[in-house]
């Protein structure tokens, strides 16, 4: 069964104006549905199947947006902050009418994959502790990372607050005074990757998220760049 919405809600959701403004536009006769001028802002319309024209332009309605951002250092994963720039500052204003928000968070100094959406149900499913959606990070570590660390992370380590982490998969790319690793975790505690390495007396000096679920960061996106996700990619976010 087709989902019908008020014409003023449809048009305000995509940034054509506030509901009060849409009401005025109805009086001007610049809105039509299936060839008929709309005078009633409360008219129920099927946005997927009805042809909606606003000021001479065909309206392509969508309820949700899904954006992949390659988050740079220095930005807060939030929709508002009094002191620091936020990730939404990187997004074109045309997307902001959808009121997107970050799915989870990356620390201010962490780079990499961040998904922005206004789909609250998707966000809830991805962040649910019961789902254990895997997240893979690349990191540079101050200290020599060894096979002992691989074993410790696989068993689970104890964080500074006494929390025992779930088993995680540590891959050593380079073992030196500054080591390079990839780490896959299945939960999302505050500063978790940093705290895990602190538990084995090492320090994260650079951190970048590579993937969430089976969704991988697009290597063609430079820091601060973003693009919309494909339908196939949206499904990958939740896959383990």
Give me the secondary-structure category: alpha+beta
Helix content: 10-25%
Q: Give me the strand/helix succession.
A: EHHEEEEEEHEEHEHEEHEEEH
Per CATH, the superfamily of the largest domain is: Pseudouridine synthase I, catalytic domain, N-terminal subdomain
- Radius of gyration from the alpha-carbon trace, in angstroms: 23 Å
Whole-number tally of structural domains: 3
Shape: elongated
User: What are the low-pLDDT stretches, counting only 5+ consecutive residues below 50?
Assistant: none
Largest sheet: 9 strands, mixed
Question: What proportion strand?
Answer: 25-35%
Tally of strands: 15
Mean pLDDT: 94
Enzyme class: isomerase
Protein name: Ribosomal small subunit pseudouridine synthase A
Family: Belongs to the pseudouridine synthase RsuA family.
Keywords: Isomerase, RNA-binding
Distinctive features:
240 residues; Structural Genomics Hypothetical 15.5 Kd Protein In mrcA-pckA Intergenic Region, Chain A; Alpha-Beta Plaits; 9-stranded mixed beta sheet; 4-stranded antiparallel beta sheet; 7 helices; 15 strands; EC 5.4.99.19; 16S rRNA pseudouridine(516) synthase activity; Ribosomal small subunit pseudouridine synthase A; isomerase
């Amino acid at each position: 069964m087709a989902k019908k919405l008020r014409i003023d809600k449809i048009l305000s959701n995509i940034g054509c104006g506030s509901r009060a403004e849409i009401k005025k536009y109805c009086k001007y006769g610049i809105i039509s549905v299936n060839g008929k001028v709309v005078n009633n802002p409360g008219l129920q319309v099927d946005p997927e199947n009805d042809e909606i024209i606003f000021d001479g332009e065909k309206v392509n309605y969508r309820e949700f947006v899904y954006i992949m951002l390659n988050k740079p250092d220095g930005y807060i994963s939030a929709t508002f902050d009094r002191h620091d720039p936020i990730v939404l500052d990187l997004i074109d204003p045309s997307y902001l009418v959808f009121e997107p928000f970050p799915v989870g968070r990356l620390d201010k100094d962490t780079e990499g994959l961040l998904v922005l959406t206004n789909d609250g149900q998707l966000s809830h499913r991805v962040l649910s502790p019961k789902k254990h959606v895997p997240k893979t990070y690349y990191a540079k570590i101050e200290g020599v990372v060894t096979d002992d660390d691989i074993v410790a992370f696989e068993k689970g380590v104890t964080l500074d607050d006494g929390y025992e982490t779930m088993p995680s998969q540590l891959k050593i790319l380079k073992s030196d005074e500054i080591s390079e690793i990839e780490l896959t975790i299945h939960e999302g505690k505050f500063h978790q990757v940093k705290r895990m390495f602190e538990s084995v007396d090492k320090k994260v000096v650079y951190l970048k998220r590579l993937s969430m679920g089976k969704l991988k960061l697009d290597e063609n996106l430079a820091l601060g760049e973003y693009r919309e996700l494909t339908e196939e990619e949206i499904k990958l976010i939740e896959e383990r």
